[in-house]
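TL;DR need structure tokens for one chain.
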Amino acid sequence: MLQKLRSVRQSELFRGVSAEVAAEIDAICRIKTFSNNEVIHPEGELAVAIFYVVNGLVRLTKTEAASGREADVSICEPGETFGEYLLTEGVNYVTAARAADVTDVAIFDLMKLRKLAGRHPILQTNAARIMSRHLSEAFRCISADRLQTAPQRVANYFLGRCPEGAAQASFRLPFQKRILAGKLGLAPEALSRAFAALADAGVNVHGRTVTILSVASLRAAC
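>> reply
TL;DR here they are.
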């Protein structure tokens, strides 16, 4: 528990706070372990907390009311905060949150955290910084959806995992393919087709292991 609290204190939301404020944060935080696919909070539910991923993965999803279809809007990895938009205002969660693996989540009481932020404006500044980053990520996702094909999105993701200056690369995907599909804004079947299309660029995907025979060829595929 103590080690997990140390991890929470490294959250971007609490960057630069004093030891006294950190102790107050500890007092309004609890850590809960969620099983794979367990709901952390439903979409539209009355908001009572802000969250931080200690380890594991969290899917943020939106559901279309008419059809009931669900889509991933973000994948939160360890070290990421979600629900920070509620720190200054807001009543309900705008997405659902669901564990995508066995996941430890730090849960901060919303009302108490708002009071703390009122006394320590650095928390509001940090929340604004996180929201700005999330907004930039949303814009990148929208532009990729409008401007890039599925193979191009996958190629760019793979390039981001290649060591700087490498001619070839091999790495393991950090999560299951269905999670990667959600992260890239693709349906699972579209991700599979993208893998097949990138084979001509020297990309081989076997399970969660990705082998890139030519980084230059992969870059050209973008």
